[in-house]
Amino acid sequence: MVVVPASALCRYERFSLYNSPYPAHGSGHAIDLYPGTNGAISPVRGTVRSIQTVRCPDRTYATSEDHVLLIDCESHVARILHVDPAVEVGETIEIGDRLGTLIRSGFFGRWVDNHVHLGFRQPGQNPYRAGGSLRIEVDVPVTGLAWDGTGTVLEAGPTHVLLDSPSDREHSGFTALADDDGVPLDGGLVHYEGGGTFSPADGKRSLLGTSIGLADGRDLRWADVAVFADEKRATGISLFASRVPFGVKLVFRDGHGFGPGEEVTVSIESTADAIR
Predict the structure, then answer these.
(1) pLDDT-based confidence at residue 170 (cuts at 50, 70, 90)
(2) Cis peptide before 166 (omega within 30 of 0)
(3) Which pTM does this prediction carry?
(4) CA-closest candidate to residue 126, choices 68, 200, 198
(5) CATH topology of domain 2-138
(6) Where are the domains of the chain?
């Protein structure tokens, strides 16, 4: 297990351990860090060991190439993606140093914001395989925000809608959407196979009065449910921890028709046809 310290996390606006369909994030073995206006800054201190260019899935909205940066830390090797590097092999970097430029990777869904992907390997492990990273813990508390399912659209993209709620603008730390029992949630509900929580929880979890899955410690296996914004079927809800004012992010596969300023009511229902 590797602990990402508060001194690194607080340089980013948001982070998520589970909000991804890729094996590297299974059971929270990688973390995505969203720096906002800070750009592609380093979450680790160490020496650049290697930089490798890799091909991406073909997306019309994204670049065809990504880069794997390997950084030797004190006892682990950090594996960083989604940055066009401005550093060189052999260079020593500190937490917060500029790594390069964030890229819109072909590994992203269209609704995914640019971010830094971070995982850790033991020194003797193959650092280029997608799987095999060490489990990650975060050294910051995450406060769960209760929500009644309503909100106003702040931002509308081709495949996403950002709402203004729930939000606790007085809170100075990280917050996340809470389930009905106050447990803060992480991941893609339910468009990715599994999700997680920012505090250990066991047993059935529910949101907006509907059972959404079964938790085992920090891991959460989604139930077969459907998310609706008014009468429009959504692909799901994008879940994360944020230190800027929080708002639910709804994602859609084929557009949505919502615009800024519109009032939206979200509901969750059991279904035999869950989107994965």
Answers:
(1) confident
(2) yes
(3) 0.95
(4) 68
(5) Glucose Permease (Domain IIA) (2.70.70)
(6) 2-138, 142-270
